[in-house]
Amino acid sequence: MLKIQNLTSHYGRIQALHGVDLEVNEGELVALVGGNGAGKTTLLRTISGLQDASGGSVSFEGNDITDMVANKRVGLDIAQVPEGRQVFTALSVEDNIRLGAFIQKDKARIATDLEKMYARFPILKEKRNQAAGTLSGGQQQMLAMARALMSRPRLLLLDEPSMGLSPVLVMEIFAIIEELKEQGVTIFLVEQNATAALRVADRGYVMETGKITLTGSGENLLNDETVKAAYLGI
Amino acid sequence: MTKAITIMKREHLSLNTVLHVLNQLVLDLESGRLRSDDVDYELIEKIMHYIEEFLDTMHHPKEDNYLFPALLKKTSEANDVILELQEQHEKGVEHRKRLEVHIQAMKDKHPGQTEKVIDALKDYLAAHRAHMKLEDTVVIPLAERVLTEEDWAPIDAAFNENKDPVFGDIPQNKFRKLLSDITFLAPSPIGLGGGRK
Predict the structure, then answer these.
(1) Are B38 and B173 in contact (CB under 8 A)?
(2) Which of residues 1 through 40 in chain A touch B, CB cutoff 8 A?
(3) Which entry of A17, A55, A135, B101 is 20 to 30 Å from B132 by CA?
(4) What GO biological process, any one, is recorded here (chain A) (predicted)?
């Protein structure tokens, strides 16, 4: 579904991605793990079109989208939940959720999807008239996920969804990710919480200094001595 | 690491996560951030229900029926620690009953119950943590040392039947739903703050 070949990207003269090759097949949950500054977020931003590629290619369902602008990629059913949630703090919770369906013109479908989001994330229904900026981190993460799901994505890009959350909220986030996978959403998950990410992932990639250094099934990577030592602290 | 040990450690992690929510309630009650009138009994009941039911139906039967007999058969070194675990288990039942009595009394607004609930919660938390610590630091290393691949096969198979409440493959299981309810009810920032205001 998503194929990345020899992808490079720069911030000015600084090269952040060094020839990344990566693939996400339909229905898969693929995790990308690595430390701070490894280039994980840059890779995600390049996939969603928020960061320019300086070389290589990104293709989605066989079509080259390397140079396609970000908002057009939403039309391809790709949605991203950004690092740090990035909700619109001054807008209400409901308006934030509705923004996720900004390309959708069918009002009945938007209303149905909104109800589905409230059923899945009841806390958002309780807070629907509140400004999003008043929500806690966990509530904002649920909001960011609901907003992304409003576009009914076939490929969901998740950037550090568990960052800064309490243990029980981390469990909840990963349970939701698993549910989405069971519903057929293809997921590319970028996480520093390597244990949790690789446990739910079909396959995983390890990234260091802008390069993919290791790949394999989630289970194999969890049992890999290098991964254990570098990322799992065991 | 064998499959059974991986699952045991994962289950301990899940339990610790839920105990963490309970611990926060203790801290809030103790500091006065949470008044006894505002205690969310539904949340406490769900946490205790999760812990007790999960241990009784998923965790302990596999240890009692597979891991511990294999260890006892293999080495006399296991005698003392398994006896200690059994004693802890019995004490744990007492802690739970005492906690339930004081919670009911606090619910019924009997005076002086807040301190008793705090103490009973602390004992309940400490008992579960001590039990898991003994398994993690003594039982599991001992099992890794003395059990052979052949010994592990039936133990792995038994533990493998356990469905992890979060990372398992039965999405509708009751533990998953309970955890989701606990997350919803627990006050922010630990949970989503959807419980009693």
Answers:
(1) no
(2) none
(3) B101
(4) L-amino acid transport
DSSP 8-state secondary structure symbol assigned to residue B100: H
pLDDT digits (tens, 9 = 90+) for A164-194: 999 999 999 999 999 899 889 999 999 988 9
pLDDT above 80 (res B153)? yes
CATH fold of B3-185 reads: Four Helix Bundle (Hemerythrin (Met), subunit A) (1.20.120)
Tell me which residue has tokens 């293709």.
Answer: A59
Q: Who's near A192: CB < 8 A, 6+ residues apart?
A: A33, A34, A35, A36, A160, A163
Give the pair of three-digit tokens for residue B128.
């579960």
The pLDDT mean for chain B works out to 88
| Whole-number percent of chain B with pLDDT over 90 | 62
- Mutation target to probe the A interface, by most A beta carbons within 10 A, among B1, B14, B183, B197 is B183
Q: Which residues of A touch B189 (CB under 8 A)?
A: 136-138, 166
Residue B43 has pLDDT above 90, yes or no: yes
- pLDDT tier for residue B162 given thresholds of 50, 70 and 90: low
Q: Which residue of B has its CA nearest to A141?
A: B192
* Burial class of residue B143, CB neighbours in 10 A (0-12, 13-18, 19+): buried
Selecting from B21, B180, B189 the residue whose C-beta is nearest the C-beta of A137 gives: B189
The mean per-residue pLDDT over the stretch A137-141 comes to: 94
- Is A167 in the B-facing interface, judged by CB distances under 8 Å? yes
Tens of pLDDT along A101-119?
Answer: 888 888 999 999 999 999 9
**Rounded to an integer, what distance in angstroms lies between the CA atom of residue A68 and that of residue A82?**
19
Q: What is the pLDDT of residue A225?
A: 84
In a 13 Å sphere around the CA of B54, the CA atoms on its Cβ side amount to: 28
Three-state DSSP class for residue B191: coil
Question: Least CB-CB distance to A168: which of B176, B191, B194?
Answer: B191
> Tokens 């009994």 belong to which residue?
B41
- Taking each continuous run of H as one helix and of E as one strand, the counts in chain A are 10, 10
E strand or H helix at A32: strand A29-33
Which residue in B has a C-alpha nearest to residue A134's C-alpha?
Answer: B188
Taking an 8 Å cut-off on Cβ atoms, the answer to whether B17 and A168 are in contact is yes
Strands A211-217 and A186-191: unpaired
